[in-house]
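FAQ: What does a multi-protein file look like?

Like this. Sequence, then tokens, then the next protein.
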Amino acid sequence: MSNSLENKHVVVIAFPFGSHPMPLLNLVLKLAHAAPKCSFSFISTEKSNATLFPKPYIPNNIKAYSINDGIPEGHVLGGHPVEQVCLFLKTGHENLHKGIDLALAETKRRVTCIISDAFVTSSLIVAQTLNVPWVPVWFPMSCSLSLYFYIDLIREQCANSAGNRNFNFLPGLSKMRAEDMPLDILYVGEEETVFSRTLVSLGRVLPQAKAVVINFFLELEPPEFVQDMRSKLQSMLYVVPLPSPLLPSSDTDTNGCLSWLDKQKVRSVAYVCFGTVVTPPPHEINAVAEALEDSGFSFLWSLKEHQMGLLPNGFLERTNMRGKIVSWAPQSQVLAHESVGVFVTHCGCNSVTESICNGVPMICRPFFGDQGTAARMIQDVWEFGVIIEGRKFNKSGLIKSLNLIQVQEEGKKIRDNALKVKKTLQDAARPEGQAAQDFMTLVDVISES
């Protein structure tokens, strides 16, 4: 296999937003380690690449190349992140080719395969133009992949239901409801954006892929869902989303989160974090603070710097004996700490993965995208968490959920399920597991191109 990969040149195309670039680099690091004679050209925007490269753990067979972000010179961005996404997607395959030209000029190797974030669908056109295999990677929650193959039925159901009827037509995902659906797939007419049109196209684009890589655990999937997706795709490979051994642990814990957790009782702390993109409205920040104060539980809250001023007057002083608020926390290490008993989360895919890998139950407040489908799976399929009452933060609802998971007998099943899933995933990550086999199949796809 080493010889068959000696002159291969894999172009990797990132979706340079939110939490997408890092897990793609994580996958490429694993591939570069498995195929040291293969060249990997990582193409993204300059801003995104600056956060990933150069780093001492990046091997020599991975090189970064920057392309246009699509933002016109002098253009002032509005407050909605989808604007940046749409501007980037509008640059199309021509922009991607410019990045490839940079890679070709330096490597002197023809492109033999395209690995891309599935959201950059124009990468298919690039692969077709170069006549090489296209391998998209699915980074949202795996179950959300099904939605893009049943767009018409979902839109019909959402238009004719109050949001609480189950979607019995989704194989393996009958627990889903209208209220769980990403708004982007429901937009029609003037409401449509470049991004929403891209998402809606996935059901007809992804079947053209040589293989679709799923960044999740096969062992947690409803079998009917897997069977249905396999019938629609040429190949579906599950690559366990655990960090590459080449990746260092999180940056230095400058805010002292871990040393503070060391002083807390086992499973006593509520960890609160809403990721890098989500910004809850002021009244919900206030509700979370009031609930944490009145609940009596210890808490560690990772809150963006610009939102600190939204906290109730005197909150920090009144809770400083049992609470800690920081602008950033080493999340994977926090969730692995024995003092953390529950995770209050927006249900971003990376956060969900880190939580379930560490056996930490979740209190879910989904905001957009696949977060609603993830929350439904957590509560009604995997049963190791709950969706916040009313799907928005309010003081009484959060206190109720904290009590349920942390102390009530009714919540014992949730706590036990979380620990059972942790054990399942530890077994899944073994060298003889399905994920390891699927990873080697991915290496085979690269070598055969």
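And here is the next protein:
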Amino acid sequence: MKYAFPDSFWWGSASSALQTEGAREGETTWDYWFAREPNRFHNGVGPQQTSTFYQHWKTDIQLLKQLNHNSFRTSISWARLIPDGIGEVNPEAVDFYNQVIDELNEQGITPFMTLFHFDMPMAMQEIGGWENRDVVDAYARYAQICFELFGDRVLHWFTFNEPIVPVEGGYLYDFHYPNVVDFKRAATVAYHTVLAHAQAVRAYRAGHYAGEIGIVLNLTPSYPRSQNPADVKAANVADLMFNRSFLDPVLRGEYPADLVALLKSYDQLPACKPEDGFLIAEGKIDLLGVNYYQPRRVKCRDSAVNPQAPFMPEWFFDSYEMPGRKMNPYRGWEIYEPGIYDILVNLRDNYGNPRCFISENGMGVENEQRFIENGQINDQYRIEFISEHLAWLHKGISEGCNCLGYHMWTFIDNWSWCNAYKNRYGFIQLDLATQKRTIKKSGEWFAATALNNSFDRE
């Protein structure tokens, strides 16, 4: 069967500044944390050991062109552009990002630019990070500077990438700095992130730029174990906390009443100001990026909550392992391709069918050297992963979902937070020792798919 996609469909990949650039002036929370706890990072490999995009951007963009990308998402590093978060702009960073943006445009690759992809300047974290409204204002200033510097040539902006992840990692589950476990502080961080997003949107609108502004959310559909009301309720709470806590403010301009009522009943609401509601209403976006990797399967709790334990989302649900599920064993994630369709249908039916695109989707595999044939990694498993997801994406589009593109995570095998280089995700193999780049079989497959705007599968 042939799967053909709409004209001008965005074919590309996604990456981030911190995971690819290397060599920075400004210290981030990741640099700080790695210097103190290198044992928390796979094989002790930290954020300095990247795929050296800062040095190789020109040849890397040639590789993007070779893979027939018509679009590419990366991020600006706040800590590179404004090392202390609030002070002088670093002219070398301006030159670097100008060169990257100009080269992408010259090669016919539309730049999609994210303003915040987990890399908080350490100077901002030292005054409380997203718990501090001063940091919200500093971010808004940083965003405005980016729009002024690059907004004439970047026409697709994203305020945040996966804003729920620093909330979960930094303030609930201890997998990002500052390693706090405190729900109310987590709720404050989430709330202030939405305010920061809305301030950036307001600044963008005020500047009357030619492009559009949005946000990238990792949407993880919550599936109940059964249709038993207790399981359905558990899945709804998970959806409220992990999806709708950002989805509703950015698409509807307000928080779900059920979420507010739930947090209020447990005294977990962040401090709000009367004018916040007006600001949040102004933060409605033009374009939604959807990162989809895995589903969340949920059942009602089987046991009573320990009243002495910290208040957590898991007070309301347990995770559920569906029998017969398909797994990526290297990442420990379920592979469930229809989830991408379910997300699009939910957006169509419940959120007014917003303009959206798949901004990340991918699979990380360990020790891919096992699959080298004639000097090239034969990653047929990745081709199958992408084509299965694209088939469900195609179904959504054919049923009227307003999805405009597909970006794979990622372009070149890159550094991946605490996992470092444990799992490889790229279309292009990176030899860490030599920085040599070699296109994998999946890269060739994607290049052909993008060129033809279609693919065939049985």
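Q: Is there any per-entry metadata?
A: Some entries carry free-text notes. For the entry above: The chain has one domain: 2-456.
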